[in-house]
Amino acid sequence: MNRIILLLVCVFLLSACAAPDQADVSALQANTTPSPANPATPTNSPFPTLTEALPPTSTFTEKPPATEAATVTPTPTSTIQVCTNQAQFVRHLSVSDNTKLQPGVYFAKVWRIKNIGTCTWTTDYAFVFQSGASFNSTSETPLNHEVKPGETIDIQVALVTPMQPDTYTGHWMLKDPFGNMFGAGDAANQPFSAIVVVEPIKVNERRETFACG
Fold it and tell me: Are strands 99-101 and 192-198 parallel, antiparallel or unpaired?
């Protein structure tokens, strides 16, 4: 009986020692309750993520194609005048066409010619042989003075009649400094002519009188 009582006493003492004080338990619970400001449960911070440092993205903006500045050609204040060469036959001043001459005769042929174009004939212009009988003339005769549009000039060329009797025709034209030939007519393509009739040499006939026997 005593053992039973003793055993009960020991169990009671052990229960008293093992059971915590209610106040202590409440205080412990109060201290262990997590609060937003001071959480009781430690939270492990995640390891910092190592992000590879990428080079800054360069924004490439395509430049619009360069536009060439338009080249403006200045308008000249003065324009080059384009003139035309054209002549007109006025008359023969010596040895008209179809004049009769002896063979081997020297003579001066003179034409009066008018400038009816828009170019001024300078001394760089010439009167040149074109075709036909040349009458032993020079190939070209430079003009001896300037001839403005509307003016006339007397052109003289030294000629010699051929030795054989016949009718001979020679043609001459004017030539500008660039070698372009021109003459009379609407198209300025008619030459100036010299027509000469070469007659046979006349021999004085000797008359003899015969007596009849």
Answer: parallel
| Range(s) of the domain holding residue 125 | 87-198
How far are the Cα atoms of 50, 51, 130, 144 from residue 46, in angstroms, in the given order? 12, 14, 115, 116
Q: How far is CA 39 from the centre of its chain?
A: 90
Residues present in the chain in total: 213
Q: In 133-189, at which residue ranges do the beta strands (DSSP E only) sit?
A: 140-142, 152-160, 166-175, 181-182
Q: What tokens does 94 get?
A: 């010596």
Q: pLDDT-based confidence at 108, cuts 50/70/90?
A: very high
Q: What is the mean pLDDT of residues 19-46?
A: 49
175 closest CA partner among 122, 131, 126:
126
Number of domains in the chain: 1
- How many angstroms separate the CA atoms of 117 and 83, rounded? 8
Q: Is residue 22 one of the residues assigned to a domain?
A: no
Cα–Cα distances (Å) from 205 to 163, 202, 208, in that order, read 22, 9, 10
165 and 199 Cβ atoms separated by less than 8 Å: yes
Q: Is 203 a domain residue?
A: no
Which of 92, 174, 113, 179 is CA-nearest to residue 141?
Answer: 174
If one counts every other C-beta atom within 10 angstroms of the C-beta of residue 151, the result is: 13
pLDDT at residue 29 is higher than 80: no
Domain assignment present for 96? yes
Indicate whether 81 belongs to any domain. no
pLDDT, mean over the chain: 77
Q: What is the CATH number for 147?
A: 2.60.40.10
